[in-house]
Design brief:
Blueprint lengths: L12 H9 L3 H23 L2 H17 L10 H20 L10 H7 L13 H11 L4 H12 L4 H8 L3 H14 L2 H13 L4 H9 L11 H12 L5 H5 L4 H17 L3 E2 L16 H6 L4 E5 L7 E5 L2 E8 H9 L6 E2 L8 E6 L5 H13 L1 E17 L7 E3 L6 E5 L2 E8 H12 L3 E3 L6 E7 L8 H13 L1 E17 L8
Parallel strand pairs: 5-13, 7-11
Antiparallel strand pairs: 1-2, 2-6, 3-4, 4-6, 7-13, 8-12, 9-10, 10-12
Helix pairs in contact: 1-2, 2-3, 2-4, 2-7, 2-11, 3-4, 3-11, 6-10, 7-9, 8-9, 11-14, 16-17
Length: 498
């Protein structure tokens, strides 16, 4: 099999560079797809502008395409691209006359002055959200801001961030922890979600390919140069919107990108015994969910920013969730215990699963056939938090003696009746984004009441941990343990039969 006959996603950087230098645009498109999130993230961390960051990233790849012959060490492609990007970023900032700390517009001015042109199709974040997002991030030193942005745009993979920045995973953990502490706790969840939604996707890749000059020519054609100037000069417009106004060739490529997006949002309906997807199903509460017919529906979300989970036994309805969360549910692992491959789809879905037989196995098979993702369990040594008992007589942790269970609370208060410590440990993994190992030796059912209020300069997480120790007598101790992890891998999908 020749390189050209191989899927480009399977080629390494050196092979892709060789194919690209021979004039193969599809191979270069794979380079763009592989590194666009990294380059856009570096530019955004420096400028604070989504549109400007995508302009600079586009310029980076166009420059790289024209200068491929000068790349002497193809195995260092990533570092070479980052060098081009940082030079373009610094030149742009110097021309604007300020340091890499771009200021977001005020919220008061946005309502009157925002551009009527939309953001790229894949970026579902408003101008107001952009301003809030950057106001939150710009106060963080770049050494912490950069890994934080990369982390949420690289599917929450510490390993990816470590490789990109050429630092250890432990250093990434430390910088992420420090970055989160520097963010005000009230806006942390917003920043996490907003960064995920700004990650560039297929439309960006197709847009870059649309404006590449013919390899080996001394300069772009007049039409191509006009398109390039139109792109870099119209800072108020979104990247994808600008692509639609370019040359006829660019319009065709942009249209192709739109086709890709349309293909992604086709509903996936598998093993559906009942009638077609019924809007009324999605209104069911836990009692109504129990009465629904056997259905498995997985579709692009129709409840953006209205996520929620309804469960009854093994039946589940979950709205506006990511593929990562589908993996968590299918295999019974929390996110901190997942080791993910690169480029896990960032699309959000709605899941309705009421099959009586083997529902999780069906979901696992769907993840394999539709997304090319499979998983296996493996014991690995990793950083953890160890849950221990410091004071067994603390008033906030009582043995459950009554009947019935309940859960209630608000921003700084939690009351749970009839829970196991294992359930508490799992919830702590979500809160602290690290695996939690239960070494309390507490095996019964408990009632928990916890109240916490951050002190000046104290994060919400630190306040929660302090309250656990003072009120429940439980402490979380950093450590390193060999624990069972879920290793998620990409599999080669068999071609469709004819």
């Amino acid at each position: 099999m020749t390189l050209k006959a191989m899927p480009f996603a399977a080629l390494n950087d050196v092979e892709l560079v060789g194919e690209s230098m021979a004039g193969n645009r599809e191979a270069f498109g794979q380079i763009v797809a592989r590194y666009q999130s990294l380059i856009c993230s570096l530019a955004y961390s420096a400028t604070g502008s989504l549109s400007q960051s995508e302009d600079l990233a586009q310029d980076t790849f166009v420059t790289a395409w024209k200068q491929l012959a000068g790349l002497r060490e193809p195995e260092k492609l990533r570092a070479w691209l980052c060098g081009i990007a940082r030079n373009l970023i610094n030149n742009s900032l110097r021309k604007q006359g300020h340091e890499p700390s771009h200021r977001a517009e005020s919220l008061e001015g946005l309502s009157e002055s925002h551009s009527p042109e939309p953001l790229p199709v894949e970026n579902t974040i408003s101008n107001e959200e952009q301003a809030i997002l950057w106001r939150s991030l710009e106060r963080i030193p770049e050494i912490y801001r950069e890994p934080l942005i990369l982390f949420y745009r690289e599917q929450h993979s510490v390993e990816n961030v470590a490789q990109i920045l050429e630092i250890s995973e432990e250093t990434v953990h430390q910088r992420l922890s420090r970055g989160r502490k520097l963010l005000h706790q009230e806006v942390l969840a917003f920043v996490e979600g907003a960064l995920e939604r700004t990650r560039p996707g297929p439309a960006f890749t197709m847009g870059v390919l649309a404006v590449l000059p013919v390899l080996g020519t001394a300069s772009m054609t007049a039409t191509g140069m006009a398109a390039s100037h139109a792109s870099t000069g119209t800072k108020g417009a979104g990247f994808f919107a600008k692509m639609l106004a370019m040359t006829p060739g660019a319009k065709i490529a942009a249209g192709a990108a739109a086709v890709v997006i349309t293909a992604v949002v086709t509903p996936i309906v598998i093993h559906q015994i009942s009638s077609a997807d019924n809007p009324r199903y999605w209104e069911a509460d836990s009692a109504g969910l129990e009465k629904l017919p056997p259905v498995f529906v997985l579709r692009p979300t129709q409840f953006a920013r209205q996520g929620g989970v309804t469960r009854s036994g093994n039946k589940i309805m979950s709205k506006d969730i990511r593929v990562i969360e589908l993996l968590e549910y299918a295999y019974g692992f929390t996110h901190p215990r997942l080791i993910l491959p690169v480029n896990v789809p960032a699309t959000h879905f709605d899941l309705l699963l009421t099959l009586p037989d083997h529902p999780l196995e069906t979901l696992q098979e769907t993840l394999r056939t539709k997304f090319g993702l499979t998983a296996h369990r493996e014991t690995r040594a990793t950083s953890v938090l160890i849950l221990k008992v410091r004071n067994p007589n603390a008033p906030g942790l009582q043995i459950h003696l009554g009947a019935g269970s309940s859960l209630s609370g608000d921003a700084h208060e939690l009351t749970v009746r009839d829970t196991a410590i294992a359930g508490l440990a799992e919830s702590l993994e979500w809160r602290f984004d690290l695996p939690v190992v239960d070494q309390t030796g507490l095996n019964g059912r408990y009632d928990i009441h916890l109240q916490w209020q951050p002190r000046p300069g104290e994060s919400d997480r630190d306040a929660f941990r302090r309250a656990m120790l003072e009120q429940m007598g439980l402490e979380l101790v950093p450590g390193r343990e060999a624990i069972e992890m879920l290793i998620v891998e990409k599999v080669k999908q068999a071609p469709a039969s004819r």
